[in-house]
Amino acid sequence: MTTRRDEKQEAKRLVVLGSTGSIGTNTLDIVSRFPEKFRVVGLAAGNNWELLLQQALRFRPEAVSILGEREAALLRDRLPSDVRVLSGRDGLIETAVLESDLVVSAVVGAAGLMPTLQAIRAGRNIALANKETLVMAGALVMTEARKRGVVILPVDSEHNAIFQCMMGHARSEVCRILLTASGGPFRNTPAEDMRRLGPEQALAHPTWNMGPKVTIDSSTLMNKGLEAIEAKWFFDLPMDAIDVHIHPQSIVHSMVEYCDGSVVAHLSLPDMRIPIAFAVAYPERLPLDLPKLNLFDVGTLTFEKPDLERFPCLRLAVEAGRAGGTLPAVLNAANETAVSLFLQSKIGYLDIPVIIQETMERHDSTEETNLEDILEADRWARDTAFGLANVKEF
Fold it and tell me: Looking at the whole model, is its pTM more than 0.85?
């Protein structure tokens, strides 16, 4: 007999934070393919009100949120009255805690921490694409999730791959995680040429289609450093058990080595809809009508050790992950500041790691961290990094 409760649960209620970004739009693509399985109840975006409007008209959520009040007014004029329009950071948090079965957290940068944390405190399960949440506040976030019985599912292709490779295995049997990275567009660029790189070259990623900040992070390998810290918290492993492997083909999305020497790998074509679908539909797998992996066409899979001299951002991230405390939050804030300045052509490409390292060296890390300490470290690091960029002759 089907109960009223069963009927209500037939379609999984989703909130998508960062709905107009790469992860958000791909999530909604999955939803549109399986309308009987998902119901969008909340959408949140940064500034792209035109795309948010299109999404809201298509999926008719209960509420939408956008940062600017002017953009919110434009949405109110164009949306049906039964769609609530919220704005600002408070609106983002209000959207995050809507009654739902799963919150897809895909806001870019440190801005994703508070709505994700508040959603966890409200008892919402999370599909996490915002790596900064665990980089900045991994211990706090995982403690809150355990306390409230919240499930956090990884969306990033690497962590999603690791999660799948560990299914059915005891955590105590895991020896090492082999975290793969494409190597970005400058893997073979001569060091002297990297001094002259501008935003246009750095935004041309050879494999993945991502937003500007994540694309720059991928080119510096900071993205992989942040993912290593994230993996530490996701899978409860020390930093020394997480090894980065450069894998230019982006077919092996990560591997897990077990205590008996076995290595389990996850392979697929590089399409973010695959890990997104697994996260939002978990524990079910959806029949995606996407191109299938043909290893005969791929031919060769290669792996290289990362060059930490050429890509010091990865080294700095690993150091921050080992140190813990507030240092990862400082690393992240300094990186966000430096990347923003680079995208505005105010500093050079090789100045990014210099600013991050000097900011880290000036910070007195706090061992036991609460949310206030983390947010203060974030604010301090942004001010410090911005000041360093202004006083140096970049």
Answer: yes
